[in-house]
């Protein structure tokens, strides 16, 4: 057999959690066609991977890259981490189906400016992604807050029956056109007033289509467990698989509760398909939320529209300079972005290590001084938490970013190294692997990612993009089931 690319003598982590094994991998067109001892075959390009690990390309299940995959299709923050697929549209905010005039509702402003919201249908968005040919594959959720923005003028109340019907129609069409499911961001002020009764008919539409429901919970602080129960009930009612976004115990008063939250997740998962995603840091980041302003934690401002000169400074220092309270300073800074150091390391590690958690960066690509997770989340899990701290075996860490993610989001023939699967691959050197982005210098590519292939095309090699991009829109093709026992 003749291969387009032959990767020789790699330590293969196939994504399933199985221990690594040494093999050659033959690739033709966009797929893996052979695995084993392939020395007798010819190849157009052949590369020696001795001493390196070859994994399925990482799937970033929690992103806000909606408009960036079109505007900056190189997608270096993700490609340089070994990510080959991004799931966009999380936390209730998506670029489609949306058209906007005037002000962009919070936190949709994380995705871009008003002119970036120009995809009135999911089909139009998907076509724009395909036309941009990003370096990574893209799969997309529809955001509940985005749906609200299309049918409501006032977000500080529940939607009316007529508005729910209108959102349901928009959602059903998007699901028909290939959206993976629905996301919500119930903690944000523009979705907080949506009661469970508003969510249920929308989630039911997702269940009917065989999609997935992801939710940034209504409360990640003292009310975490109740918010989890609400999410389980909503998903159960719609017979839809659930992913709790960036599960965390936020706020100093809530530290030490991860085992309670994970117990709750385990219990629910006995009866319904339920998972979570997690990023390997103890700080969160989003728009500046007055409800989260507290002197118990450190808050750093990353951007501010009225006071751009205050970016990168602690809120405490700004308030002291201005001679005002933290809350008043925060009010004056808005609209703004912030990093909140609001988790405990032990809680985060428990969530990351749990078998039902996947890795998602939650990176904010439009923040001028982003949280380091944008450039570092995936290598950090492998290097710091698996190799250095031994929190999880390497094969398990890779499973959390590949096969588990593909199964939960219905991405067929991805997230696994086997004959017939798409050739989305990441080759890395575990010895030199390191996330280099930190809170001071957050825009920095990881070390040790040696090669990244997307759909059979090498997009990244020797620390730089090759200029060849082969990502595409991944439209929903599989009907997901809500019961744990019939997992794909
Ligand atoms: Zn979120």
TrEMBL record:
Source organism superkingdom: Bacteria
Entries under InterPro entries matching the protein: Amidohydro_3, D-aminoacylase_insert_dom_sf, Metal-dep_hydrolase_composite, Metal_Hydrolase, Metallo-dep_Hydrolases_sf
Any one GO molecular function term: hydrolase activity, acting on carbon-nitrogen (but not peptide) bonds, in linear amides
Identification of the protein by name: D-aminoacylase
Record-annotated Amidohydrolase domain positions: 48-458
Listed Gene3D superfamilies: D-aminoacylase. Domain 3, Metal-dependent hydrolases, Urease, subunit C, domain 1
CDD domains: D-aminoacylase
SUPFAM superfamilies: Composite domain of metallo-dependent hydrolases (SSF51338), Metallo-dependent hydrolases (SSF51556)
Pfam family, one: Amidohydro_3
């Amino acid at each position: 057999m003749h291969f387009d690319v032959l990767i020789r003598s790699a330590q293969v982590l196939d994504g399933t959690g199985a221990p690594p094994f040494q093999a050659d991998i033959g690739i033709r067109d966009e797929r893996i066609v052979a695995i084993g001892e392939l020395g007798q075959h010819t190849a157009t390009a052949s590369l020696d991977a001795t001493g390196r690990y070859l994994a399925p390309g990482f799937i970033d299940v929690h992103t806000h890259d909606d408009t960036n995959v079109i505007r900056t299709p190189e997608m270096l923050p993700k490609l340089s981490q070994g990510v080959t697929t991004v799931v966009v549209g999380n936390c209730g905010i998506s670029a489609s189906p949306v058209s906007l005039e005037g002000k962009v509702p919070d936190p949709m402003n994380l995705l871009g400016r008003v002119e970036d919201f120009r995809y009135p249908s999911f089909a139009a968005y998907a076509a724009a992604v395909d036309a941009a040919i990003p370096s990574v594959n893209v799969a997309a959720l529809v955001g509940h807050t985005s749906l609200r923005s299309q049918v409501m003028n006032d977000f500080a109340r529940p939607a009316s029956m007529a508005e729910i019907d209108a959102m349901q129609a928009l959602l059903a069409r998007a699901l028909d056109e290939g959206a993976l499911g629905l996301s919500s961001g119930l903690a944000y002020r523009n979705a907080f007033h949506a009661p469970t009764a508003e969510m249920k008919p929308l989630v039911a539409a997702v269940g009917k289509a065989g999609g997935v429901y992801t939710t940034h919970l209504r409360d990640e602080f003292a009310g975490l467990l109740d918010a989890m129960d609400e999410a389980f009930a909503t998903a159960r009612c719609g017979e839809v698989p659930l992913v709790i976004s960036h599960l965390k115990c936020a706020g100093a008063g809530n530290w030490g509760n991860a085992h309670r939250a994970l117990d709750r997740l385990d219990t629910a998962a006995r009866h319904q398909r339920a998972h979570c995603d997690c990023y390997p840091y103890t700080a969160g980041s989003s728009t500046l939320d007055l409800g989260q302003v507290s002197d118990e934690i450190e808050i750093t401002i990353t951007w501010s529209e009225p006071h751009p000169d205050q970016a990168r400074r602690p809120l405490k220092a700004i308030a002291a300079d201005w001679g005002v309270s933290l809350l008043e300073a925060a009010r004056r800074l808005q609209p703004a972005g912030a990093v909140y150091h609001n988790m405990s390391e032990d809680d985060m590690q428990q969530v990351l290590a749990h078998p039902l958690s996947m890795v998602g960066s939650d990176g904010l690509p439009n923040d001028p001084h982003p949280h380091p997770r944008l450039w570092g989340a995936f290598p950090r899990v492998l290097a710091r938490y698996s190799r250095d701290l031994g929190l999880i075996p390497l094969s398990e860490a890779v499973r959390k970013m590949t096969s588990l993610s593909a199964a939960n989001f219905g991405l067929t023939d991805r997230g696994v190294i086997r004959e017939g699967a798409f050739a989305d691959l990441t080759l890395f050197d575990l010895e030199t692997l390191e996330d280099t982005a930190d809170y001071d210098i957050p825009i920095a590519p990881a070390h040790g990612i040696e090669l990244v292939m997307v759909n059979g095309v090498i997009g990244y090699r020797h620390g730089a993009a090759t200029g060849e991009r082969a990502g595409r829109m991944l439209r929903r093709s599989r009907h997901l089931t809500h019961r744990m026992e019939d997992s794909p």
